[in-house]
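Practice problem: UDP-N-acetylglucosamine 1-carboxyvinyltransferase
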Amino acid sequence: MEDAYLIKGGKPLKGTIALSGAKNVALKVIIAALLFDQPVTLKNIPKINDVIELLHLIKSLGGMADFVDKNTVIVDARSLNKNRIDLLHASKIRVSFMLFAPLLYKFSECFVPNPGGCRIGARPIDRIVDGMKKLGIDIEYDSSSGFYRAQMKAKPSGSYKFPKETHTGTELLIMLSLFGREKITLDNTAIEPEIDELIRFLILSGAKIQKEGKKIIIYPVEKLILPSPFEIMSDRNEAVTFATLAVASKGEVTISSIQPGNIRMFIQKLKEIGAGVDILGKSLMNFYYRGKLKSSRIETQPHPGFMTDWQPNWAILMTQADGESTIHERIFENRFSYVEELRKLGADIDYAKIPIKNPTDYFFFNFDPSKKYNQAIKIKGPQDLHGGVLEIADLRAGATLVIAALVAKGDSVVNGVSILERGYENFEAKIRSLGGEIEKI
Ligand code: EPU
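Answer key — structure tokens:
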């Protein structure tokens, strides 16, 4: 199977691209569409491996979910006839645990495998399980089978305050609260734009959801009906990747269907380091190299802070910036899989220890003082990068390695591109349209 890119780097990328639909909205809206008792039409769904896996999973449960044209998916939950997700499908798509919501409403009981860790850390779902219990759901983990068994004996009720923000946790508890016995309040929720988009979809379909800062109040409704097809918003992570590519390759890329408000902190940081950023129209922006880049300090945070998904891309920019930069990752443990790979291209990049007074509060994962973590890096630039053979370990690191290979002088091979293609639609074609020399091998 072709699973690598051959890249000839070292030239500025120039041109225009249109963003695809947001992966992290599409996946959740497809799952939420299983809460309806009639077919739901969704537009601008990116045809990426993660979405394709989710559609397979829904079909393995008896549901219907298919692309009917390039980016339109119809989901029909009426034929769902299984309440147990098999391990094979669950292992391919982490958000499978979000199916607790539709399966519990459909069958009152379901069996869902523990999503487990992944390449960006342990990723437990303890807060999510705790929240489900607070809403009255019986849920137990059977360590001998690796499955959760959940039961909804009565309509959900109550309230839950997340001890720390969780993005998918907030989304799952919203879905579970839609047809409750009474008003349900969720507090200290995540406030990522993707969650607002899921809420917009649900409200358009008749849900009664009120948002006050980090508090979300859900009033019960009987059913959901979507009056017309729902269009998924554009992918802000893809916007960041192509903006980074423009500046790091010393080129200029115009991005259409962009929503600047969703990447405000990234735009601010780009301006601070001296990159060119122009708003050309309502959803049209230009990103370009203007000359010497300044070093920076980045600390990842939930929205509206600098997002964790952007830091691997940012590291490339910092290899081209003047002086020493730091990146401190607060959201996930183990999100620096790209460090060793960038060193192969000649990047001057090292793990750093930044003393933190209260790591349990500072980090958003469950900090364990007995474990060793690498949560910060230092990058010295500007550094000319040369070609090399690189291995992709996780999605965002994958895009980073491709950018690095495009910036580097000479030929590179990037292996494991199916991981990258889980989240980026037509990545190779888009890069080629900007003049990048990239070929699947
Ligand atoms: N966490 C727990 N217990 C929980 C829930 C979360 O310890 O019960 C920890 C996580 O392990 C993590 C931190 O809390 O260290 C925050 O996790 P969160 O739940 O917010 O992340 P997520 O919902 O698993 C989503 C996106 C990620 C994105 C983060 C942050 C999807 C499918 N995934 O993950 O996207 O980085 O929110 O916004 O929406 C990506 O697209 O490449 C990606 C990783």
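Discussion: The chain is about 30% helix and 25% strand. Students who identified this feature from the tokens alone can consider the problem solved.
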